Amino acid sequence: MMKTTTFPSLRVDAELREAAESVLRQGETLTSLIETAVRETIHRRRVQDEFLARGLSSSEDAKRSGVYLAASAVHAQLQRRLDARRKRVLG
């Protein structure tokens, strides 16, 4: 079984605490809201870091190869992918 630990205590102004408490869902605690927020932030930052790494790698590949794509071509390809996905999901 994995041992648990705690985060440092967090001091906030009363308005922030009231705002957080005002959006709690049924059965949710302030602690679970904070834990969810921390988990989601960690995930989002990892995704952002991976995105940046892919972009930098792509930039280096383009510099090495001399092959660049026009933004309009990339946008068109992304739009086709989005349209196809919407069609599959929405019918």
Give a written overview of the molecule.
By secondary structure, this protein is mostly helical. It has a domain at 28-90. The protein is 71% helix and 0% strand. The chain has three helices and no strands. The longest helix has 36 residues, at 30-65. The radius of gyration is 22 Å and the shape is elongated.
Which descriptors apply to this entry?
single chain, 3 helices, 91 residues, mainly alpha
Instruction: State the total count of DSSP E strands.
Output: 0
Instruction: Name the shape in a single word.
Output: elongated
Helical residue percent band = over 70%
Question: What is the CA-atom radius of gyration, in angstroms?
Answer: 22 Å
Strand composition percent: under 5%
Can you count the helices?
3
Characterize the quaternary organization of these chains: single chain
Query: What is the element string, with H for helices and E for strands?
Result: HHH
Put the structure in a nutshell:
With 91 residues, the chain is mostly helical. The chain contains 3 helices and no strands. The chain has a domain at 28-90.
Write the layout of secondary structure elements.
Layout: H1 14-22, H2 30-65, H3 71-90
